[in-house]
Amino acid sequence: MMLPLLSFITLLLFSSCSSENNASTDDEAVALEAETRMNVSYGSDPQQVYDLYLPANRSSAKTKVIVLVHGGGWIEGDKADMNSFIELVQTNHPNHAIINMNYVLATFQIPAFPNQFLDIDRVINHVTSNSNEYAVKGEFGLIGVSAGAHLSLQYDYVYDTDDQVKMVVDIVGPTDFTDPFFANNSQFQVLQDLLVDESAYPTGTNYAVATSPAQQVSATSSPTLMFYGNQDELVPLTNGDRLDTALTNNDVTHSYTVYNAGHGDFSPTDALDLQQKTSVFINTYLEIE
């Protein structure tokens, strides 16, 4: 469902100009060449891997990290689905490092929540613990699509206790499972029962509330950039509205864009708008100093 958007973004790369000036190399730093490391393990499960894209002339004093989180309804998908975003970031933000991560997909034996939130935490911690080797700074921006946007929002709003995440880009992400669209859907209720590891939450927890980013927003939530379609049959526009309201009520800096589209099947014009707004957001909240 995200393929049209990803295809448009790929096409846009060839007409995009870099929106980021090259940062100068630190006086004391040794100039480093660009480097790519594929399938770096961050846990014991074979799915717990990420691809790492390191820019040239990086340093642990300046080089910040953009983390890409794929969608797939929490039960499928792969980091390869985000490859177009790698090209986008490398074209417009060549001085940022990029992490393109996989997480353990949900099964009957391994529920999604909170395990997938914690997988983002494991990636953040793994990169931070290797920051000297990678020559990157422990500051991050998250870009998530669909279920990956839900995971990114929830990670920032609940699990980022050290405030390492500085911005989140939410592309058609579910935000509120208390929305009647989900709450009144018996099939979704069955799915949610399978997605939640009840043993990981206190007795009596309202799981719909506990796993909904819009219900977890606080004044410490990071600046958030939101993109939704007004004809989305998988994630209703009311979910975008609810997150927009929660962010406004908590005075969290954010931007909310609604396209005349479905679940990520944005037009070329809309895809260009998304690209430009995302670049401005990165330059503003994850600036290379």
TrEMBL record:
<feature type="domain" description="BD-FAE-like">
    <location>
        <begin position="51"/>
        <end position="247"/>
    </location>
</feature>
<dbReference type="InterPro" id="IPR029058">
    <property type="entry name" value="AB_hydrolase_fold"/>
</dbReference>
<keyword id="KW-0732">Signal</keyword>
<dbReference type="GO" id="GO:0016787">
    <property type="term" value="F:hydrolase activity"/>
</dbReference>
<keyword id="KW-0378">Hydrolase</keyword>
<dbReference type="InterPro" id="IPR050300">
    <property type="entry name" value="GDXG_lipolytic_enzyme"/>
</dbReference>
<protein>
    <submittedName>
        <fullName>Alpha/beta hydrolase fold domain-containing protein</fullName>
    </submittedName>
</protein>
<feature type="signal peptide">
    <location>
        <begin position="1"/>
        <end position="23"/>
    </location>
</feature>
<dbReference type="Pfam" id="PF20434">
    <property type="entry name" value="BD-FAE"/>
</dbReference>
<dbReference type="InterPro" id="IPR049492">
    <property type="entry name" value="BD-FAE-like_dom"/>
</dbReference>
